[in-house]
Amino acid sequence: MTMPDIERERMIDAVIRVSERSLYAFAEHVPKAMMPATIDGGWHVASLQFRGPFSGRISMAVPVLLSQQICGAFLGDDVQDEAAVRDLVGEFANMACGAWLTGLEASECFDLTHPEVDAAEQVPSCDLAFVINDLPVMLTMSLNDPAQGEAAS
Amino acid sequence: MAVRPVNVLIVDDSAMMRAIIRRTISLTGVEVGLVHEAANGRDALAVLESSPVDALFTDINMPVMNGPDLLRAMAGRDWDHICRVIVSTDGSSARREEVRDLNVRMYVEKPFAPEIIRDVLLEVCDDNAGH
To answer: CA of A74: which chain B residue's CA is closest?
Structure first.
């Protein structure tokens, strides 16, 4: 299902607010064409589903280098803790999705699944692109089509 | 009169979110005593039974025991003085209504501004000074 522009705008705002307020990292929305598919060190990709008045899923791809940088800022230099680094990426996606949904439907509850975080060598495409601390971050959003019962971008 | 530092308990299943709240507390400039952490409601109850706590920041969705169940378990115990704050990604009015009767002082949406956490801690400082 096509994502309306206003919903994309709210998601852009949500990602920037979460990045700056919670992660203390400067974020900027940029054109998708600026995004590289591969990056040194690879990506962490956090995915979660949401269900409520409407349902769908989001995936957020963060360079391993960036997640280690931010994690190190909170936990000291112990960025070798892979679990903590993945936890950070999952929480980033979780907060962005929650803030976006609250902005869309302030009166309704949504259930969010626990974020799953996987490693990826390549992230070929995205719906929204950001630069955070000078590194690329990519977001993919999809809504389930109530008629079809499956997600489409 | 010297005001006793505020002892805090942060309850969230994400270690990173606990670190974010801890960092935010440190940036408020409010004098804080001990900052305890727990990964779920059951672990939080263990902390409450063994340590004095003035302010509790809890997530809603957690494994083992979630935030609302933690607050229900606190009711009727000798913890009425503890300032209870929900910190959640879900800012919907439906979710706020769900915890309204659980003696919650404030409902804070993630991402939150440090000023909100500061205001909570200052309120608790005032409570401590009044006792």
So the answer is: B19
